[in-house]
What does this fold into?
Amino acid sequence: MSSKSEVIESLRKAVLDLDTDRVCAAAQEAVRLGIDPIEAIDEGLAKGVRTIGDRFAAGEAFLTELVMAGEAMKAGVEVLRPVILQRKLQRKSTGIVVIGTVRGDIHDIGKNIVAVMLEAAGFEVNDLGVDVTSDKFLNKTKESKAQIVAMSALLTVTTPEQKNTVHAIEKAGIRKNGKIAVGGAAVTPEWAREIGAEGYSDNAVDAVELFKKLVAS
It folds into this structure.
């Protein structure tokens, strides 16, 4: 029989090896042994993703590896989710984020990586996907009481949607309750300042540190 430490280490290694099948098998073993699912996520899955993220930041891992590690972590979390819900456990949240790619843009690789890295860092992430309207951003921000609204835009023609969403949030009177962060290939620090965003990042690893600072400020 595997020990708790062995199963958690198996989760971490399986993520590092980008092996979704092994991740799911290890997660199922964690459930069978009654291992705290939050510990399995924090000490196993998330540690693996963070290691890949650090390697990516150092130029030692490829973008595809970071994407695959994120998918592996998600698969493991899905196996553990029923236990989390059954126990009504809640990870100690670093902060609440609403994230999505703005209306008219369907690119999501960068956004997905940021979302996974934020989850690995303990953030509660509400991922709205792609082609997200300002109304969807606004409604989810209200519903989740998000501290940060993060918008991605890869296409230059869709960057005005970031500005529209900032205006919608301001008009709704909830702008003072949270921060705006923007990113994506079409976004620049100058554009972020122009639309009144408090945060800008051009990569997922820096984005995590930025979001921690925004929540703390």
